[in-house]
Design goal:
Length: 472
């Protein structure tokens, strides 16, 4: 049985970003709800509410839902129509397959003036003589009843025969109420018998957890524990219990029962009991994995790779260290990684799964470092060797230092004795910057008539062409 809680509503309000105060549509079908609570306070703006296939026995706490237009309460344990007067906007009500026997209780729906569709099929009242005529005459605002449209002639005829039909309905209701009272007494008596039988089985003396010999003395504890812990006995006990449960289940489903709210609750309890027994049996079958051995009894460390990660181990002779590159998952949170460096081995826990590797040489745990790549996510562990110095850069030796000092001394001497270059002015002349560009004085030119040169025969370039006329 599931209680009607705010968390239940929020989980079914994902389409509204889990906000419930502005929720307009809510579906809570098949949730094993027995009672409606607080919904008229938490979801005032509801327009559509699905509550079919639950165990609701009474319509309550919905009268303040003024905007509610469609209410589906099919397949529940409702026995009476009530507490819907405040749903002013209700236009469709589905009460299919319930236990409504008081057909006269639908008179409370007269205040719902906007109600157009009503479903009552599958209820005991739907088997009454004159059921449809009574509903059509009582709720004159209805347009559809059980999926069938109400004709005008049908309503006129129902109103004409209403006094007679009403008397018939009252008599049938009275007979149904007497029968229902007997069914309730029978269900209560049966429930009490089942409870007494369960108490009797628990109080009945039986196996006290010890095995006895033929003379009546209990076996020694060592023999008893060995017998009890034998896998054959445990397996036989589980199989026997499983067969008994199957027989009980078959007997329950083959036993005839009435269709009442109590029988529905009994069926649900039986199914829940079977489910818990199945879960308990499956938990017993689950074998707890033994803890993985990381270090043997004689203190020898083992190589273990339970998370199944790729890795590489390098011996850096240049920097005198051992480097382990572990291919940790790229998007794994670093808080789920635990590194433990020991002198002879290194252990990394990745989400609780151990990775252990024996090192080829002894290292210094205190000087070791672990870093993680931001691009690949790999874990890089640098472990300096014992009696060796780890360096992040090439070692600076003394000769290098001496050469640096000597070069600095030479520079200081050069700065003290400044050498000057002498230039012979006769060989080299410095340009006059001021007179680099010399201004030329432009003198006016006189245009002189150039004498005309007449070619003569004495000119070597002269060529007498008879076709060319003489120059005048």
């Amino acid at each position: 049985m599931r209680p009607f809680t705010e968390d239940l509503i929020r989980r079914n309000a994902e389409h509204n970003d889990c906000v419930i105060f502005s929720l307009e549509e809510l579906s809570l079908h098949q949730q094993e709800i027995e009672r409606l609570e607080h919904i008229d306070k938490w979801c005032r703006d509801l327009k559509i509410l699905y509550l079919q296939n639950n165990l609701i026995g009474k319509i309550e706490n919905v009268s303040k839902l003024k905007k509610l237009e469609y209410l589906n309460l099919a397949l529940n344990n409702i026995e009476k129509v009530e507490n819907l007067e405040g749903c002013e906007g209700l236009t469709k009500l589905d009460l299919t397959i319930n236990f409504i026997g008081e057909l006269s209780s639908i008179k409370t729906l007269r205040h719902n003036i906007h109600l157009k569709e009503l479903f009552l099929m599958g209820n005991p009242c739907a088997d009454f003589d004159g059921y449809r005529q009574f509903v059509v005459a009582t709720l004159q605002q209805l347009k559809w009843l059980d999926g069938k449209e109400i004709e005008r002639s049908e309503r006129i005829q129902a109103l004409q025969n209403f006094p007679v039909i009403e008397q018939q309905i009252r008599e049938q209701e009275k007979a149904y109420c007497l029968k229902r009272a007997k069914d309730k007494e029978e269900a209560q008596r049966k429930l009490q018998e089942d409870a007494d039988e369960g108490k009797k089985e628990r109080s009945q003396p039986g196996f006290d957890g010890r095995w006895y010999t033929d003379i009546g003395a209990p076996l020694p504890s060592s023999v008893e524990s060995k017998d009890l812990q034998a896998p054959e006995i445990q397996e036989g006990e589980c199989n026997r219990k499983k067969v008994e449960d199957e027989e009980d289940d078959l007997e329950f489903w083959n036993k005839p029962s009435l269709f009442t709210p109590e029988s529905r609750l009994e069926t649900l309890r039986h199914m829940e009991k079977q489910r818990k027994a199945q879960e308990k049996l499956s938990d017993k079958k689950k074998k707890v994995k033994p803890a993985r051995t990381l270090i043997t009894e004689d203190g020898k460390a083992l190589n273990v790779n339970e998370p199944k990660l790729d890795f590489s181990l390098k011996d850096d002779e240049k920097r005198k260290q051992i480097v382990l590159d572990l291919a940790v998952y790229r998007y794994l949170d670093t808080s789920l990684i635990d590194v433990d460096v020991r002198p002879t081995y290194v252990r990394v826990l990745v989400k609780g799964k151990p990775f252990q590797l024996v090192l080829p040489a002894e290292v210094k745990p205190d000087s070791s470092s672990a870093k993680r790549s931001q691009t690949t996510g790999h874990l890089v562990i640098c472990m300096p060797k014992v009696d060796e110095v780890i360096t992040g850069c090439p070692p600076a030796s003394k000769p290098v230092a001496s050469t640096l000092d000597s070069s600095r001394e030479r520079k200081t001497e050069r700065s003290r004795h400044t050498e000057k270059l002498e230039v012979d002015p006769s060989k080299r002349s410095f340009p006059d910057v001021a007179n680099i560009v010399q201004e030329k004085k432009h003198t006016p030119r006189r245009v002189r008539s150039e004498p005309k040169i007449t070619p003569t025969e004495e000119d070597p370039d002269f060529e007498d062409n008879p076709e060319v006329p003489p120059l005048i």
